[in-house]
Design brief:
Largest sheet: 4 strands, antiparallel
CATH topology: Outer membrane efflux proteins (OEP)
Low-confidence stretches: 1-48
Strand order of the largest sheet: 1-2-3-4
CATH architecture: Up-down Bundle
Number of helices: 12
Distance between the termini: 49 Å
CATH class: Mainly Alpha
Strand content: 5-15%
CATH superfamily: Outer membrane efflux proteins (OEP)
Helix content: over 70%
Length: 463
């Protein structure tokens, strides 16, 4: 109705006007529509402000990522698009009403032609019978929505996994930096003590060089870990939908502190077959594939229904505005209406519909084959993640034992060195072994935490 009124105003004002006037009026109309569109865009709600002054926990990082990350925003847009498609499919049940308008300008004035001619019309069309095509289109739209919902759940779990890994990377390199700083401080102390022994005549200058080499290696390790920490701190906000330059601090890892105090970790208590069954029941890919199969089945049905006719009802109402404006007589003499029923049926299309049906049937078969392979793929993913976690649990136990043994060995050699019963090289080797054991302990613990999260993701229970 709005479109019809706009056309009427434009056509009415055009009478007796030049082309320039029409273009000017049309330009104003277009600019008005564009300005309204800009106002609609700017009227969107502002993004939620994030308080980054406090240290963030893993749960807080996940919450920020689910709200602001690009993948989740696109997922919500995809969901909104599918909801619009359902509304569009539902709208096919209603009649369509449209307005028409025409303006003709010509220099022909003979044989009854006028320089300007105007026509306005109003039409409607309603599909009376389509052999179930509307029902099929609506059902297909609902299945597409179900597929999108489950696909978004998969996107959500994938994002949670990435954020968790990035979060543990920050904690891991923070712990490695602390270990490297302790090792460097110990190496600097050894270098100074070696120099003191050289001045006292107990050691030779070559021993100073040996100590300085160890100190340089520890300094290089510290620099590498500091650089890796900065990279990890830049990757985390990127996954959260923030600028990589935003400074984010993470809360202290209580799990690692408890592990250092108690020397124990949480262990998976279910067999691998049960883990696989949980994955088959919870992975969103299965529900998404099922919805895709049903959607493609409806596509095949709709393609077959294209062979059947469509019965439409048409109504038209027209006004010869040019003659009415010129003669100014009774308005009813210049209007007309018509109503009818049309039956549309494709007699020959060169095999287009048949080829379309065959193509959709083959695509449906491909999806079914992929669905069959998906179960085997998920079972393999779970089994690999399960075995990796078991290996990680064993590695944590071994690393803890190595730290204890390396510390005891260092204490013994340190005591022997203090009473001149051990040489400097033995002490440096013991310190290096202890430093490596501490580094391995940090790496194996956070590798275990990440593999634990990956198993939860493979099982479809990561929330």
């Amino acid at each position: 109705m709005i479109q019809g009124k706009v056309m009427f105003i434009i056509f009415s004002k055009f009478k007796g006007a030049r082309r320039v006037g029409f273009r000017s009026l049309l330009l104003k109309f277009i600019l008005t529509v564009q300005f309204a569109a800009v106002l609609c865009v700017n009227a969107q709600e502002p993004a939620t402000e994030v308080d980054l002054t406090q240290s963030l926990t893993l749960e807080q990082c996940i919450q920020i990522g689910l709200e602001q990350s690009t993948s989740m925003r696109n997922a919500r847009l995809n969901l909104a698009i599918q909801e619009l498609r359902i509304k569009t499919a539902r709208a096919d049940y209603f009649p369509r009403i449209f307005s028409t308008g025409a303006y003709d300008f010509s220099d022909r004035v003979d044989f009854g032609f006028e320089p300007e001619n105007y026509n306005l019309g109003l039409g409607a069309q309603y599909t009376i019978w389509d052999n179930g095509q509307r029902e099929g289109g609506f059902a297909q739209a609902k299945e597409s929505l179900n597929a999108t919902v489950n696909r978004n759940e998969g996107i959500k779990q994938s994002l949670i996994l990435q954020i968790t890994e990035a979060y543990y990377d920050v904690l891991q390199f923070q712990a490695l930096v602390e270990v490297s700083e302790q090792n460097l401080a110990r190496a600097q102390e050894n270098t100074q003590r070696t120099k003191d022994f050289v001045e006292a005549g107990s050691l030779i200058p070559a021993d100073v060089a040996t100590a300085e080499v160890r100190e340089g290696n520890n300094r290089l390790t510290l620099l590498n870990n500091q650089n890796s920490l900065q990279v990890a701190k830049a990757r985390l906000p990127r996954l959260l939908g923030l600028d990589p330059g935003v400074l984010i601090t993470v809360a202290a890892d209580e799990a690692f502190q408890l592990y250092q105090q108690r020397g124990t970790i949480e262990r998976i208590a279910i067999p691998v077959e049960e883990a696989i069954q949980i994955a088959l029941d919870n992975r969103p890919e299965f529900k998404e594939t099922e919805a895709q199969l049903r959607s493609q089945e409806w596509s095949l049905t709709l393609a077959k229904l294209q062979r059947w006719p469509r019965l439409n009802a048409d109504v038209d109402y027209n006004v010869n505005l040019d003659d009415y404006l010129r003669e100014r007589e009774d308005f009813s003499d210049f209007r007309s209406w018509s109503a009818g029923v049309s039956l549309n049926f494709t007699l020959f299309d060169g095999g287009i519909l048949g080829n379309r049906v065959k193509e959709l049937a083959m695509q449906l078969e491909q999806t079914r084959e992929n669905a069959s392979d998906l179960e085997r793929s998920v079972a393999l993913d779970v089994r690999q993640a399960y075995l990796n976690l078991k290996r990680g649990e064993a590695a944590v136990d071994i690393s803890k034992t190595l730290v204890v043994n390396a510390r005891l060995s260092l204490e013994v050699i340190q005591g022997r060195f203090d009473v001149d019963k051990a040489i400097l090289l033995e002490l440096l080797d013991a310190q290096t072994s202890y430093a490596q054991a501490l580094t391995d302990e940090v790496n194996t613990f956070y590798d275990y935490k990440i593999t634990q999260t990956r198993l939860q993701d493979a099982m479809g229970v990561l929330q």
